[in-house]
Description:
Layout: H1 5-18, H2 23-31, H3 41-54, E1 79-80, E2 83-91, E3 95-102, E4 110-116, H4 125-137, E5 147-152, E6 158-163, E7 167-169, H5 170-176, H6 181-200, E8 203-204, E9 213-216, E10 221-223, E11 230-231, H7 239-244, H8 255-258, H9 265-281, H10 293-301, H11 317-320, H12 325-332, H13 335-343, H14 355-366, H15 373-387, H16 396-413, E12 430-438, H17 444-462, E13 470-472, H18 482-492, E14 496-505, E15 508-517, E16 522-532, H19 533-538, H20 542-563, H21 573-582, H22 586-599, H23 604-616, H24 621-641, H25 646-658, H26 662-675, H27 680-692, H28 696-709, H29 714-727, H30 731-742, H31 748-761, H32 764-777, H33 783-787, H34 796-813
Parallel strand pairs: 12-13, 12-14
Antiparallel strand pairs: 1-2, 2-3, 3-4, 4-6, 5-6, 7-9, 8-11, 9-10, 14-15, 15-16
Amino acid sequence: MKLSTDQLSRMSRLLEDAIDLDATQRKMWLEALASEDQDLKEALRHGLLGPGEAGADPLSLPVCACLPDDATGLKVGDRVGPYLLTRELGHGGMARVWLAARVDGAVKREVALKIPWVGTPRQGLAHRFALERDILARLEHPNIARLYDAGATQQGVPYLALEFVAGKSLLAWADERRLGIRERIELFLQVLGAVQYAHECGVLHRDLKPSNVLVTDSGQVRLLDFGVAKLLQPQSESGLTRVYGRAFTPEYASPEHIQGDPLLPGSDVYSLGVMLYELLVGSRPHRIKATDSARLLEKAANRPPADRPSTRLGPEAGTTRATPQKTLARQLRGDLDAIVLKALAAVPDERYGSAAALADDLRRHLKGEPVTARPAYLSYRFTRFIRRHRTGVANTAAAVAVAAVAGSYLSSTVTERTPPVSAALGDRPIAVLPFVALPTGDGSTAQGVSFARDVSVALARTLANFAWRTIAVPDVEIQTDPAEIQRLGRKLNVNYLVSGNFRHADDQIRVDMQIMDANTGTQIWADRVETPEAKAARFPDLVLLRTTAVLRRAIYKVTADRIAGTPPQGLNPSEMVILADETEDQDAKVRLYLEAMHRDPDLVPALVGWADRLRSLEASVAENERNLQQADDLSMRAIRLAPNDADAWYVRGWILWHQDRYDAAITANAKAIDLDPSYAKSYVARGLYTISIGQPEAALPALDRARDIDSTVDGIASRTACRAFLSMGRYDEAVQNCERAMATDESVFAHVYLTAAYAQKGDMARAAESRARLLQLRPSLTLETLRGHSNKSDAKRFREQWDKHVIAGLRTAGIPER
């Protein structure tokens, strides 16, 4: 009996359900197997019970593709290298695992000996097994099962000697000990630490599920089974990925994994979200039963958003968590609901960017601090209100009361890091007043207060690098009289008052906002953000992120304008950095950064700003290396001083990219986006890093997100999108994006990409025009110099794309070789 891919997927899910049952329970479970799974009954019986327990003649049992004949003829008591086989621990689609003891006298140790099946030919199996050995050899972490040894039998069959973990699966261990929510989260943090470590080593697990996590009696987690893991480095791109890379357990696999899209660390984060969901409530967010590949893909593409964990408690959930059901639901409601749902977002960019970011939010929850997932949840409620604005909201008074209570909690806890504050900037310079919903109607006050609080929290995150405080003020009326504005400013001890209104009109959500100077009582800035209702419905955070991005730029600008012209001796270090960030004078920028660092060596914005400046300087090769090393040191110092500073992680990502450390750059970038999702340039950087690993198609969602959030990055985002489409051979779209970029971006590379795209399209007249403009900007440009932008450390796929689509197009357009 040969099992199809679909049968293997269903069998993996079914084994997951039965793995923690004892022999009697497994027999009962088999007898109750659903009708659509009866075709797997004998294979499951063989896998779960074994010949003796199944009550059948071992020789008469069917052999399936997932349990091939063992051509080595191994049995208990046989010798494999220096190991004596004690008993079989288990078997799967690629290997048999034995408990074995080392008997050569070197080290007395029991190991889990993994030996691949060889009875059924498998394309690349030996290579795949060797890759697993190489992956495990690089992973040294207390929560990952260790690789002790590797070798081959006398018949030439390879084996791996792994740490033998005497433990139970994650869920069984937690349920048996009736762990509460806090204890379960603390246990899960060990899993997250192991996965984050693997990612930092350049390894995706790709099959994370509770049965691949064992817990010892002492409560120590061990992550197992990297058999389908993938190295993030270019050398892992091979036929092996096509043969084994789609192995997964459907209910734990991310949508992009099931659909065969390129995978990044966010795919493992999704699987971790499913595991956390199940660990907290006892059930999985989705049940996926598909009888064929097409149906499985359809279910993945149309998978509905998961229900909040607090609404999915099974009847025994409280019992196995030693907590009354109502108390358990209350513990999950709010932060944990938001954290889990963020990890399970269908779109990768809306998830946590790393296992570390998920762990950070869980720790914040345990400490009673605000979590990064909550602002998204509040803004989601706001956009839902906008969609039903015409019908109003019932029970306005109750809504106002709830918003006020929630807001007082958020405004009192929004800032985690408190570095030295500029005296001139003030301790709490920004107050966000209620936004008014227009036209007014039922619920407008409540939703205005809620949106104001969202803006306050989001601003606190995006302005955290200068320790600017933002506070939400729910119970004040908007003032227009300058004297009243000054009085309110003194009462709140702020420099700036932010207020505004929002309305639904012509299928648009319009947010009008203003900044008032509390010292003079006058308006110093105003602007409007418009968002199509349909787009806001698809991306619930968009209105909030757009508003935050505009306000961020405005607050920097009005502050720089206020202190412009002040002699250097009259500025403090923070003000120097603000002027440096805003000025176009490159010499002045350098002087301001250096003076700020001289006065305050621990001022994080100065360290970050100077590091960013150093990494972007053009100089000789030797000088570039020195600048990059100094930038590397500065960025690491900034992160040590302020580990939750989004700007520090953003610049860190760029430095790692310049060092050709692309996987690390993606991880740093994900951290930056988690800490400040309103900073559009982080998404542009994500797009470029993804192109650099040879996955241009995966870059497009991030670039679209950047343009959606902030129109000021349209030029650089469109230029990067042009590069992505060019790398895919989609020349019409490349031209469209390059021409769009040219409206605001006259960089050399915009002309490089446009020239190549026109030539590849066969439009030689326009290619010639573009080449002429390019050579005016860079007369010494040659193909040889451009080949340097495809480095040896780049992904092989990227180098091939660069040569095929960019270099070849420029050669056709007439750019000289040397």
